[in-house]
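Hi C.,

You asked whether I'd gotten around to modeling the 342-residue construct. I have! Everything is below, sequence then structure, no commentary in between.
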Amino acid sequence: MTEKKGRASVSFGEPPRIIGAASIVGSKEGDGPLGHLFDVIEPDPRFGKNTWEEAESELQLLTARKAMEKAGMNEEQIRYLFAGDLLAQGIATSYGIMELQIPLFGLYGACSTCGESLSLASMAVNAGCAECAMALTSSHFASAEKEFRFPLEYAGQRPLSTTWTVTGSGAFVLAAAGSSYAEGASVCITGITTGKVVDYGVKDSMHMGAAMAPAAADTIYRHLMDFGREAEEYDRIITGDLGSIGQTILKDLLRERAIELDGIHEDCGMLIYDPDSQDTHAGGSGCGCAAVVLASYILPKIMRKEWKRVLLVPTGALLSKVSFNEGKSIPGIAHGVVLECI
């Protein structure tokens, strides 16, 4: 029986199954430690298109099609699509998946959008509103730099606290537990914890880890309280893109609440690049970061039963060009998704 837990969490009685997942990335991501795990590594950063924004749209479309192919499905079998990106008004998503003609919920949770889309898709499937749904997210280094910082031609100096926006997209097809589509699927979403906006007053847009770590700490703490669990009951607690500096802040904040993450915490932004050889400073970031690491690295480990229970916590910095230029601080948000092998 589906049950509300505390103020922010839901436990699914009949957990939705993940029946297909796909990851497509750019060449820099392909050169990183996880390069051998991605479905496709695209050498052309423009994906055959004329602009960076069109490139990201094409990236999303290709990834959605790849996930359906791996699930043995087509677009007519997907009831709803929950998707988002980093660009203004979600243009990478709306232009990218338009031709699929799947009913769309366009989302924006910054880099936490992977967690938001998976949460909403799993709720829709669990509630019987959809037999199958897809969660889809993307980011692109060049389109994000153009949107939030400077055109690439500016060649600005990047401080060591910065993260590198992942060029990548991850897609996940979810099916209801009792449906024929879910037969043989071993990974399910057993619960979610929805994050709230947390603002510690950080104003440095080159220090995303510091802006997002408080929200990650809040969501992890709330999740453990809502479910009545200890951190040690998870094989891994994996954040989205805090990077190396944000990881330190997260551990310090949770240590103040008597929660110790040493030995069980990983961060997708730290996993995807080699900071020494790839000059990515604090790590990776972007909507695509948690999504591609989940599809390529986390889910296979759960399927092989190397990990039995994982808490994935994609993290997002809720800034825009408008808010930054008006001198506003950068609030953060994080959403928790519990992944288990049945």
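If it helps when you're writing up: The chain has a mean pLDDT of 95.

Thanks,
B.
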